[in-house]
Amino acid sequence: MDLKKFSIASTLFALLTTVVAQVYIPIGIDRIAIQVMVVLLSGLISGPMVGLTAQLLYLMLFVFTPNTLNDTYFFTAFKDASIGYQLSFPVVAFVAGYLGFESPLWKIALGCIAAYTCYFIIGVLTNSVKTDVSIAGYFNPKFNRIIILGFAKALITSLIYFGYLGIRKWKLEIEKRK
Q: Which domain holds residue 24?
C-alpha cells in the first residue's frame, strides 16, 4: 500500500471510530457499542499497520474532541477508570489485522476473539489499578454479559469482514471476465 492510500485509510478509520463512539444498540438491559467493531474492522480491512495508525490518530483526535467517557476530553479522561479500554484500541486493531487480514474465516474469527481478549484484559487491568475493585470483583453477572456480548460482536465482525472479502473477490472475478 502506498503512502497516499495508507494515510487516507488511516484518517478515514480514525474519523469513523470517532463518529461511531456515540452509537449504541439497545439489547435487553444492556447497550451495545459498535465502536470496537469499527476498531476491529480498521485492522481487518486495511491491515495491521493501518489499523494501528488509525487508532493512534483516533487517540490524537480524542485530545481535541469529547468522546464516550462522559463527554470528557483525553487529558481529563485519565481520571476515569475506563480509559484503558480507549487506550487499548491501537493494540486491538493491530492484533485483529495481524491475525485476520485476508485470511480464512477461522483465522479472522481467531483474530477478532484475540483482539477482544486484549481489549478486556487492558480495560480490566486499568480499571483495577484506578479503582479499589480487585480483578476478581469484575467477574459478576453484569460483566459476564458484557464479555459474552463482546465475543458475540467479535464473531459478527468476523462474518462482516468475511462477507466483505467475498464481495471483493466476486467483483475481481467479474472484472477479469470483461
A: 3-177
